[in-house]
Amino acid sequence: MRPVKHLIPEFERLKTRLPPGHDATLLLPCLRRIQEDRGYIDNSDIDGLAEYLGVPRIQIEEVLSFYSMLRRRPIGRWHLQVCRNVSCSMRGAEWLLEHLSERLGIGPGETTADGRFTLSTVECLGACGTAPVLMVNEVYHENLGTADLDALIARLD
């Protein structure tokens, strides 16, 4: 087994919760744990996990392409995710995205040259009542205006 080898003891503990023969249901929790460990899921991780779980590589690829929170490449230290659903868009998310793009010099899906910031858009962060919403790594920042956004970015520098 390749890079996921050091996580096997954790995966084995998860297996004890399942009835025999249901190892493939560990796919999503294993992918999430690999991402927590590495920051993204590499091709070598997919090969190792396919071997460990005994599932076809395409099954892992399908899960990775379905869940937008699973990443296939490294991201910056600060992952900025701007919600673009209707509520956030109506309350200024598009303008916040444009402001962030100008300030950081990157567009959605890009990472700054110094590797500090990655800017992404997401379909919905589930906080419509406090739109517009930005998620920085795992933390929500709600009811954002440009002054709030500038102050937040300054704290992250």
UniProtKB/TrEMBL annotation:
The signal peptide stretch is: none
Pfam families linked: 2Fe-2S_thioredx (PF01257)
Q: How is the cofactor bound?
A: Binds 1 [2Fe-2S] cluster.
List the Gene Ontology MF annotations in alphabetical order: 2 iron, 2 sulfur cluster binding; metal ion binding; NADH dehydrogenase activity
Give the required cofactors. Answer: [2Fe-2S] cluster
Annotated positions binding [2Fe-2S] cluster? C83, C88, C124, C128
Recorded hits in PROSITE patterns, A to Z, give: COMPLEX1_24K
Q: Which CDD domains match?
A: TRX_Fd_NuoE
Question: Please, which domain of life does this record's source organism belong to?
Answer: Bacteria
Q: Which UniProt keywords apply?
A: 2Fe-2S, Iron, Iron-sulfur, Metal-binding, Oxidoreductase
* Assigned protein family: Belongs to the complex I 24 kDa subunit family.
- What is this protein called in UniProt? NADH-quinone oxidoreductase subunit E
From which source organism is this entry? Thioalkalivibrio nitratireducens (strain DSM 14787 / UNIQEM 213 / ALEN2)
Taxonomic lineage of the native organism:
Bacteria, Pseudomonadati, Pseudomonadota, Gammaproteobacteria, Chromatiales
